[in-house]
């Protein structure tokens, strides 16, 4: 565990005065109503405390803020769009000394688009939407696609190694980042804004900042990979016989359509019921109710007709073999949008309902169907009325396995009774199947203590060694990601 070097913490007034001198009075917020949106997490589950929120407009300012806070033992919590589902971007509620939230939203410039090297260089506060638009304007694709793309920022996407609905084809954020600039806890700047696809000159330091959730440094800029823009896409919804049938259909799609398979998303019957209840004006794409469905998207540089024919071939093979029970191919861009809307609104529908136990797990595809069956049985054995909201990125092995309270049971009551036992059961089954207890949402504070059950002593010790090497005072985003180390047992001396 890290130990602060500063015996007497500085006062809030000192902090505000020093940081105002760096970023200017307009960019140093101190009043409670102004602080509220920055100290409250996206789902309203975590509310922290901060002495101030600073909004620097350059890497130099971030560096100066960090250097001052480091010299005075002040905690800094980096923040992008504040869309973490794990409470990773807000300060702790009970901190021993005042924290500063450092939000990067003013650093929102696209710095360069290189269509020869196929790279996009931008500041960390650019939203994912703006990054995708900048790529599109240059005739390219930046392929990361997640529900919060209008508000999440590239720096947050990097810090959390964001995933989403196109990982099957393009990989996670880690696969899309070529270079990173980051400010270290002591204010030094790591300048790694290189656009190289090959660079074997020792440790790949940028990886330290990708997925470490702002505990090792603050990402201030990045070089991202651009891809060719697809010219055609074809989208279908298919009702499938079971999770195992969905996996078999994915195999069929890969065999027939190869690289064109861009998304393969699972949707359980209760997830569709829930989302349709909220959307109101959207009808179910199927006549009958089904327990399991998949949304399949193919994209390529070929013609739209050719792609539709390929997807039809996949669906017909599925119907012939009994994997597919019913299917509907989007006939227009508007249809495709509706199918995607159904999928993407599931998350919000749960938030609005309240009482959802979010388990964001990944399991090797070869074991995912058995995992879903076993975890469903385990949850229903605990509370048979639970609504099984199971959906997500099956194509890459990531399911959002989110048991939801029965309709007539208050959220608080259900979570108090079942949050612990259900999440422990689901996580343990995923772990036993060779999976991960956090596939794409990160660890933050929500999953921090669970890591001690699922990571080996060696892994945990290495994580702490890295943290201590970069942030020996433990001032950067404390209380996130790393579970408190378990003290070594005292061995009695003979
Ligand atoms: C999604 O894929 O919709 C989100 O990652 C899941 C969520 O918000 O729980
Ligand atoms: Zn997801």
UniProtKB/TrEMBL annotation:
<keyword id="KW-0274">FAD</keyword>
<dbReference type="InterPro" id="IPR016167">
    <property type="entry name" value="FAD-bd_PCMH_sub1"/>
</dbReference>
<dbReference type="InterPro" id="IPR051264">
    <property type="entry name" value="FAD-oxidored/transferase_4"/>
</dbReference>
<dbReference type="InterPro" id="IPR006094">
    <property type="entry name" value="Oxid_FAD_bind_N"/>
</dbReference>
<keyword id="KW-0285">Flavoprotein</keyword>
<protein>
    <submittedName>
        <fullName>FAD-binding oxidoreductase</fullName>
    </submittedName>
</protein>
<dbReference type="Pfam" id="PF02913">
    <property type="entry name" value="FAD-oxidase_C"/>
</dbReference>
<feature type="domain" description="FAD-binding PCMH-type">
    <location>
        <begin position="46"/>
        <end position="229"/>
    </location>
</feature>
<dbReference type="Pfam" id="PF01565">
    <property type="entry name" value="FAD_binding_4"/>
</dbReference>
<dbReference type="InterPro" id="IPR016171">
    <property type="entry name" value="Vanillyl_alc_oxidase_C-sub2"/>
</dbReference>
<dbReference type="InterPro" id="IPR004113">
    <property type="entry name" value="FAD-bd_oxidored_4_C"/>
</dbReference>
<dbReference type="InterPro" id="IPR016169">
    <property type="entry name" value="FAD-bd_PCMH_sub2"/>
</dbReference>
<dbReference type="InterPro" id="IPR016166">
    <property type="entry name" value="FAD-bd_PCMH"/>
</dbReference>
<dbReference type="InterPro" id="IPR036318">
    <property type="entry name" value="FAD-bd_PCMH-like_sf"/>
</dbReference>
<dbReference type="InterPro" id="IPR016164">
    <property type="entry name" value="FAD-linked_Oxase-like_C"/>
</dbReference>
<comment type="similarity">
    <text>Belongs to the FAD-binding oxidoreductase/transferase type 4 family.</text>
</comment>
